[in-house]
Amino acid sequence: MRVDPVRNFILISALAAAFVLAAALDARHRSTMPRAEPLDPDSCSIPEGAGPEAVRTYACTGRMPVNSATAEDLVLLPSIGPARARAIVEHRRLHGPFRSPEDLLDVTGIGSVTLERIRSRIAIDRTEVPAENDG
Questions:
Q1: Is there a smaller number of Cβ atoms within 10 Å at the N or the C end of the chain?
Q2: 54 with 101, same domain?
Q3: Which structural domain range is residue 14 located in?
Q4: 81-108 burial by CB neighbour count: b if 16+ within 10 A, else e?
Q5: What angle do CA 80, 70, 34 make, to 5 degrees?
Q6: Where are the alpha helices (DSSP H) in the chain?
Q7: Average pLDDT over residues 87-116
């Protein structure tokens, strides 16, 4: 078996380039992720009217208000793609606002793993939830 040093150099260079690219993409992804700790919404520098209310809330607090967010807003959450986002909005339209994070388990495509991934990044706006005895 013959070792070709040129071929090995090319393979090692390609592997090193892939590693550097993966690290750069990971760093870019991490820099665009919302902060784990909520920010003070009063000190948020995003001006009123700068975008959808739910997105501004998410940017300022690190939590997406699931009872007022659109499908386009919800795709900003980890593990929520367009299909799951539409399912959340449709479930909310048919069954009313979510009362707790666990209510998201009733949405098609959302299981316990997905809920745990998004739990710290969602907010249930209780002011939008009708009282139990409304009727």
A1: N
A2: yes
A3: 1-32
A4: eeebbbbbbebbeeeebbeebebbeebe
A5: 55
A6: 5-32, 53-61, 71-74, 82-95, 112-118
A7: 94
47 confidence band (pLDDT: 50, 70, 90): low
On the question of pLDDT at 52 being above 90, the answer is no
Q: Point out which residues pair with 64 in neighbouring strands.
A: 122
Q: How many domains does the chain have?
A: 2
Q: What is the pLDDT of residue 106?
A: 95
Task: Tell whether the model's pLDDT for residue 39 goes beyond 50.
Answer: no
Work out the burial of residue 117: count CB atoms within 10 Å of its CB; fewer than 13 is exposed, 13-18 middle, 19 or more buried. middle
The answer to whether residues 53 and 97 belong to one domain is: yes
In this prediction, residues 65-88 reach a mean pLDDT of: 92
Mean pLDDT (the chain) is 78
With H, G, I as helix, E, B as strand and everything else as coil, classify residue 130: coil
